[in-house]
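Can't attach files on this board, so I'm pasting raw text. These are the components:
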Amino acid sequence: MSSPPTPVEEPISRSQGSQSPVIVFEDVSVAFEGRQVLNGISFHLPRGETKAIFGVAGSGKSTILKLAIGLLKPDAGRIYLLGEEITQKPEEELFELRSKVGIVFQESALFDSLTVRENVAFRLMEKHDLSEEEIEARVREALSFVELENTIDMFPSELSGGMRRRVAIARAIITQPEVLLYDSPTGGLDPITSTTIVELIVKQRDVYKTSSLLVTHRLQDAFIMATHYFDRKANKMRPLPPGEHGEVPMSFLILRDGKVILDGDAAELAHSKDEYIREFIS
Amino acid sequence: MELTSPTEFARETVQSVQDYSVLAARAIAGLFRRPRYFADIVYQADLIGFGSLPIVVLTGLFTGAVLALNSAHTLQRFGSLSLIGQLVSVGMVTELGPVLTGLMVAGRNSSGMASELGSMVVTEQIDAMRALGTDPMKKLVTPRVVSTVFMLFFLTIISDLLGLIGGAVVSTVIFGMDLHQFWSSAWQSLVFQDVFTGLTKPLLFGFIIATVGCYYGLSARGGTQGVGRATTQAVVAASVFILLVDFFATKFLMAIFGYR
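---
Top answer:
Structure tokens for the assembled complex are below.
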């Protein structure tokens, strides 16, 4: 897929220029306490693309994200992350690979005993190879991306739900990871805050060309992402010109009863004749 | 209450023992692998060590005092009140000091660790830490184990000393014994084996307190109720382990030294 139609500047190049998929699921199955959650699902996430995952509650959407970075192990099948098979990799060997991935959890999962500064800087502080001044500059840059610089000395408990979600995004992007995983980033938020978060995700997709998996219940969020691009000059999200939908790197994956019933772009989703999908998008 | 089949119970027990062993082994292995979290170790040492000081001081002081009080009546009947220093010192240094300090610290810190880590589990903070490329075993468990082992050793020494002071106060103030005689008797009766036994136990107990607290915390499931359950289980399990290990460690050390 091509870039958004009016990029003002050249996108930031990724460390690996290859077009190989960043995430691959091959016939992956997983069950919890005897209940089959995922039953032989396969899909891949091409580099630079954002894939929105839909499904009813309990359909295994969040499980896919956790499987993708090895937080959970599948019962069967194979998973590749950035070209490496992670299915049987021991935990100790996954930490290095995970440092190239950012994740925004459903409930933000900010460390409640740390300030916003310490939360966002967590990854950099763990590396022990940056000076305090450099870390401070990177933290402020990440927080200005989510427009929350003024919260730097606050604790997560002092922030609203939407602000926590944005801090979690800042924490995820501070090292400019190659892949971003969003678990219901707009869940439970008001429409205005949701739009702000969607705009940040679009900005990350179009400006930094980050590959992403996005779990969401809100179809309208994914449609906004599929029909808008980020204008760097105006520093805001704009609708794509008529007739150019499908020009942004955005796809959809729908789960039902542990299986993938659709994996395609907005046009394929809109023209699907599957009754369940028709009902889902209506 | 849900009934569990014997097979399921056995499977769960074996699984728990295996998980605990893996956690304990990884906590030790974390000592020898980078990165090392010295700042976290110091922070935990302050929290566990200095934070536990008031309860340890009170426990030591009153245990020594009540030990002297109870023993004095019996010893008086046989005209052996002079042996009270010996009884208090051997009792405190080999047994009561380490065990009671261990139990008090377990009550305070195993529960604290279980609730803190349990809360982190149910709010996905542990998953977030793993996803951010940090090993929770190294970052959270190893510093707690190191700090508890290190601080319990010194807390036990403080408790022993205060137990002797408590015994001395009771012996002199209530029973009119000469203070110098009490200290001479207490000091001279202690042999290397007593001190070695008394100072080996806190190392074992410290390891138990931290690993059990962290194990139950990291195993917490089921929201706030699960965290509460993990906290209670941590204190009970750590206390029972301390008493069990105390018996076997005493027996083992006696066999090594070949005395009594």
